[in-house]
Specification:
Helix 1 packs across helix 11 (324-341). The protein has 11 helices and 23 strands. 30% of the residues lie in helices and 28% in strands. The longest helix is centred in the last third of the chain and has 18 residues, at 324-341. It has 342 residues and is of the alpha/beta class. It folds into 2 domains: 3-37 and 128-188 and 296-340, FAD/NAD(P)-binding domain (3-Layer(bba) Sandwich); 52-109 and 189-294, Polyamine Oxidase, Chain A, domain 2, CATH 3.90.660. The structure holds flavin-adenine dinucleotide (FAD). The site of flavin-adenine dinucleotide has 39 residues, from helix 1, strand 16 and helix 11. One of its GO terms (molecular function) is oxidoreductase activity, acting on NAD(P)H. Keywords: FAD, Flavoprotein. Pfam families: Amino_oxidase, NAD_binding_8. InterPro entries: Amino_oxidase, FAD/NAD-bd_sf, RNLS.
Length: 342
């Protein structure tokens, strides 16, 4: 039975693992490695640093579907809606821009629940803290090295991390790229942002009415959300949580600063915007060096095949577009390559 390694347990990798299992059933052994301590990637749901049961979505916030994708990806949406993973957005979104006909969905259990749902359906062997550092071609297989522990061999490898992280891999990958492929990968551009989550005690209630607010004319903060209101859930015993995203411009200007240095700058601006905000119990700050794709691989092919035998394929939102439907497109296009090759 062929052994396939999927690198990355974000939405693209998880969907790919799930679709592979559904298409090829037990004809393939799927293994997923991620360098992080949990699944989700840029759709992560983080826990508060204190031991309370707070959680917050530091990355993706909503799933917005256009009428065209609502039709073509109908099966994915109906599955997630019927299993309760997705719900229509109900909270007030102050200052949000909405295209006519689009529908917004939220995740009561946090964005990572979407990724975990597909992983749970995949039957894949899942390993965290497995940071891939190099790939070597060994006859009909790939030897995959990781930061810690022995290397392993696989019949096919699928890479779903952001493109700059693919290009950093040592070994035979970069030398195998054609000039055109290398140029196309090097042209991919991501925005960068900082995200801060603030976790409050149960006695705190916010006086403002919105679930999320898009802040305009502010060089630092672009977006603030109350987690439970956005996700359509009750705080039930826990206190509320706020998530703040900085503007892309701010992220770019401070990209090389440590998040510890930037956190007080963001908090100062937050308290200027919301002066009545009480002090939180705990705070978590994250720097998204690779946030959303601004320039994707030309013509959005969904994937790039680097070698057919042994198979090495790259995918992810950089090969389509940076949202749920972009990841579905990429996973579907990688699935068709895998079905042909395996
Ligand atoms: C702040 C922010 C807000 C966003 N808002 C939205 C939104 O509202 N709606 C929406 O639809 N989308 C949104 N997005 C975009 C969306 O999150 C992404 O398009 C999607 O999550 C990309 O999934 P992916 O699986 O392609 O990549 P990723 O989620 O980046 O997954 C890649 C995985 O690879 C792992 N990895 C990387 N390098 C290695 C390595 N060397 N070895 C092992 N593992 C490795 C990473 O840990 C990660 O888990 C947002 C993103 C961010 C950051």
């Amino acid at each position: 039975m062929p052994r396939v390694l999927i690198v990355g347990s974000g939405l693209t990798g998880s969907l790919c693992a799930c679709l592979l299992r559904r298409e090829l059933q037990s004809g393939v052994h799927v293994v997923v490695w991620d360098k992080a301590r949990g699944a989700g990637g840029r759709m992560c749901t983080t826990r508060s640093p204190d031991s309370s049961s707070h959680s917050a979505d530091l990355g993706a916030q909503y799933i917005t579907v256009t009428p065209a994708y609502a039709l073509s990806h109908h099966s994915f949406y109906s599955e997630l809606l019927s299993s309760g993973i997705l719900q229509p957005l109900r909270g007030l979104m102050e200052g949000a821009r909405q295209n006519h006909g689009d529908t917004n969905y939220v995740t009561p259990l946090g964005m990572s629940s979407v990724v975990k749902y597909f992983l749970s359906q995949s039957g894949a062997d899942l390993f965290f803290e497995h940071h891939v550092t190099a790939l070597f071609r060994r006859g009909a297989s790939w030897e995959v090295q990781k930061k810690v522990g022995d290397s392993e061999t696989f019949d096919a490898v699928i890479l779903t991390m952001p493109v700059p992280q693919i290009l950093q891999l040592q070994g035979d990958l970069v030398p195998l790229l054609s000039v055109q492929q290398k140029q196309n990968l090097e042209r991919v551009v991501y925005s960068s942002r900082f995200a801060v989550a603030l976790f409050y005690s149960p006695d705190v209630a916010f006086g403002f009415p919105w679930a999320a607010r898009y802040v305009t004319h502010n060089s630092c903060i672009r977006y603030i959300t109350v987690e439970s209101r956005r996700r359509n859930t009750a705080d039930s015993g826990r206190g509320p949580s706020l998530v703040v995203h900085t503007s892309v411009q701010f992220g770019l200007e401070h990209l090389d600063r440590d998040k510890e240095d930037i956190q007080p700058v963001i908090l100062q601006e937050l308290y200027r915007l919301l002066p009545d905000l009480p002090q939180p119990m705990s705070i978590k700050c994250h720097k998204w060096r690779y946030s959303q794709v601004l320039t994707s691989v030309p013509d959005s092919p969904g994937h790039m095949t680097i070698l057919e035998k042994p198979l090495l394929v790259c995918g992810g939102d950089a090969f389509s577009h940076s949202n749920f439907d972009g990841c579905v497109e990429s996973a579907l296009s990688m699935l068709s390559v895998l079905k042909d090759q395996l």
